[in-house]
Amino acid sequence: MEKIKVQDAVGAILIQDMTQIIPGIYKGPRFRKGHIVQEEDIPVLLSMGKEHIYVWDQTPGLIHENEAAERLARAVSGSGLVLDEPKEGKITLTAAHDGLLYSSEDGILALNTLEGVILATLHNHYPVKKGDKVAGTRVVPLMIDEKVILEAENNVQTFSNPILDVRPLKHLKVGIVITGSEVYKGRIQDKFGPVLRAKVESWGSVVLEQTLASDDVSLIQSSIRDQLSKGAEMILVSGGMSVDPDDVTPAAIKGLGAELITYGAPVLPGAMFLLAYLGDVPIMGLPGCVMYSKKTVFDLVAPRLLTGERLSRLDIVKLGHGGLCLECPVCTYPRCSFGK
Hints:
Layout: E1 2-5, E2 18-22, E3 26-31, H1 41-47, E4 52-55, E5 62-64, H2 65-76, E6 81-83, E7 90-95, E8 99-103, H3 105-112, E9 117-121, E10 126-128, E11 133-139, E12 143-145, H4 146-157, E13 164-167, E14 173-179, H5 181-184, H6 192-202, E15 206-213, H7 217-229, E16 234-238, H8 249-255, E17 259-263, E18 274-278, E19 281-286, H9 289-292, H10 297-306, H11 313-317
Parallel strand pairs: 14-15, 14-16, 16-19
Antiparallel strand pairs: 1-4, 2-3, 5-12, 6-7, 7-11, 8-10, 8-13, 9-11, 17-18, 18-19
């Protein structure tokens, strides 16, 4: 690039967008990168406070900030992302559809350790809506050595998954089993089922069936088998998750021959959470807090399962970092620290 006086710029090619600010009226690009300066542009540039401008001098090996930012954005983007037009060396990535953002912390670190390269993102597993901003790329200098961008592109190739992608939630048929003899025998009204149904439907899935079961291992198991025989692709079993003698939900799930991933999670509320798999069908044992707390471990785990991700015990253990919900009077999740 070359710095020249505005009065000498007629015929030169602008190397960057030129922003004009008229207080209270307008702020935005007055001239775009690539614009060929005309005689009539000189007074406008001077009125914008530009005594000198940078113009293109085609230095070999250097690329413009806009091109560099765009190449970075394309390199890190997997599915479910939309790239906007470059503006002053920045590219914004937005969600192409509703879903969950998957971002590689190692990949983001690998790029940001390169001199002059910037990638800023939302947290991993952040729930997003179509059109939400999820990330942005930029380079610091107006012109950057192309070798740096090539290194960034090569770094991305070393990761098995995209650095960023937005995965849609699958629309599953969900079976719900409400446990508890007090509900089964009609002594109290079931208040767990409506909460679970509302959450399931908010994620785009449907409740296949909801059944009641007393605190009896065989009856709980029979209810789960019945749900599976009807095509349930996910099973939610509510209640009976503590260590009281009458709380037999974990024993019932394990007794089915399910693969137990975890009984217990480092998340509050939701410590007495259970996750198991019967074949490919996830079964969750949900503690009572899911019924009355706005957000719990269920809200962190279920959306990931709905993307098709198969979770391990390590995945659950990692939830401890950020696993404390502050239970604010007005819930702002996911725009808070919970799950991050």
